[in-house]
Amino acid sequence: MTYLKRLHLHRWQRLLALFLSMMIFVIAVPIYASNTPQQDLNQLNFYVDRSLSKAQAKDYKASQAAYEKFQQKWLKVEDRVKKVSPQAEQDIEKQISEVKVAFSTKPPNQAKLVAAIKNLNATNNKFINGGFKSNQPTKAIVNQDQRSLAYSIERLNRAEVALNKKDLATAVSQMKSFKTEWLDVKGIVATKSPDAYFAIENNIIRSYGFLTSKPVDITGARSAIASLKKDLQPFATEPLKYNTSDATLILLTEKLETLLVLVALLGFLKKSGNANKIYSLGLGASAGLAAAMIAAVVIEIFFSNAGGNIYRELLQGITGLAAAVMLFYTSFWLHMKSSIITGQEDIQDKINTIATNSGLFFGMLAFLAVFKEGAETTLSYINISWSMSSNDLLTGLGFGLLSLIAIAALILVVGLRLPTKLFFPLTSLLIFYLGFKFVGSGIHALQVADILPVSPANFLPVFNALSLYSTWETTLSQLVLIAIAIAVVMYTRFQNNRVTKEIPSEQQTVSENS
């Protein structure tokens, strides 16, 4: 009876690890986004106080640095302030502009600069202390991210004008600035339309690659920039509102690949009779999620200024490629071990051998898989939390979490009922597919971060579901992986044919000896 109970618990451990990991996420994001607009602005006003003290000491460089830090972080709370009081938002914006003007003269006029910063400080404190009347915001609010996106589209216009004048230096400069600014606003596009986001990211790399190639491909650059403007325009002009479905879809789109990795590994351990190692997956996934959220908060707080979001791309690229390496190793490992076999008992023996002492390896793989998407998912929720109610956010998170659990349970139930000979090749293929995608998205992220070169070509395939981007760096890397996979399959078939031929010879020898 005790043994049966232990078996029953093991059946649920595979879902418990995933559920606990996701619950950390559900609890942590609302806590991070739970401050009132007054509390948020009060925290940001620290930079205004610092700017004022440095201006009074005539340390204008430090004063301006503190002011710019406030201005960058103000963009994250502006919409929430406006929901409480549109007048407060307008007055703060006016005072921000006055400080910016005061800094524009070199060196600044100390009296005018100190007065402007004091006015900004007073306006902030007026809102913090409830000095503005609460009003309902207008129906069609275009938030600061959209205004920034509209300004970035203007950069595309300038790049086009420069190309028409054959002013390549200006065109490259405008596109480089656009590429940097895009990192600050990409979340509003990724949340609303993953397909549009993928197309825009691909065209950003293409346009920049065409402009920096030798020789410069002006026709290709113009085409990519025109596509960019067309795809970006709706997100910069239409009123932006987030709802429950948006919060749900973030989990389903950004966490589904991670879920598939975990489910494949859970199914493997269960099918191989090593359910006792499932806790390693739970620990790895939980640690990966915790590390991802910490990394996301660090990026949001310390690297949220223009250009600092490069660290987000570095995080995506490096962890994506590291996870891909481990996924390919696992995929080829499974395929080699489960293919060179002679019968059902041999299958089970070899799979049991694979799973022996593999808990640490699977834990590390779970950590990387969760960490890869966890930071980006956390940042996505932080970004939309400013523009939707807490109830909608929590409801969307709940629906998303329940949907992921249901998908995981369905895949496991169906997968575990498959014959052993079919289960492991399919698992190997699924893991290879995920690694294939991680390589494409990882290299692309490093290209966005200017770590890897960009060599675009119009005829190369573009496909979101496979992370196919139209650059030679991503395409050739993925082609090499396909070539390796074909070589592995051919090798295992050769080995199987050799074993098949040897068995009758051995049987004949035994018969003659008898």
Write up what this structure looks like.
The structure is a single chain. The protein has 514 residues and is an all-alpha fold. It folds into three domains: 37-128; 144-237, Four Helix Bundle (Hemerythrin (Met), subunit A); 243-449. It is 81% helix and 0% strand. The chain has helices at residues 2-32, 37-56, 60-84, 86-104, 110-128, 144-164, 168-192, 194-212, 218-237, 244-254, 256-271, 278-302, 310-339, 344-355, 359-385, 390-416, 420-448, 472-513. Helix 6 packs antiparallel against helix 7, helix 6 (144-164) packs antiparallel against helix 9 (218-237) and helix 13 runs antiparallel to helix 14. The chain is globular, with a radius of gyration of 28 Å. It starts with a helix and ends with a helix. Residues 1-12, 26-34, 136-142, 341-347 and 506-514 have low confidence and may be disordered. One of its GO terms (cellular component) is high-affinity iron permease complex. Keywords: Membrane, Transmembrane, Transmembrane helix. Pfam families: FTR1.
SSE topology:
Layout: H1 2-32, H2 37-56, H3 60-84, H4 86-104, H5 110-128, H6 144-164, H7 168-192, H8 194-212, H9 218-237, H10 244-254, H11 256-271, H12 278-302, H13 310-339, H14 344-355, H15 359-385, H16 390-416, H17 420-448, H18 472-513
Helix pairs in contact: 1-12, 1-15, 1-16, 2-3, 2-5, 3-4, 4-5, 6-7, 6-9, 7-8, 7-15, 8-9, 10-15, 10-16, 11-15, 11-16, 11-17, 12-15, 13-14, 13-15, 13-17, 13-18, 17-18
What are its keywords?
single chain; 514 residues; mainly alpha; Four Helix Bundle (Hemerythrin (Met), subunit A); 3 domains; 18 helices; globular; disordered C terminus; transmembrane; FTR1/Fip1/EfeU; ferrous iron transmembrane transporter activity
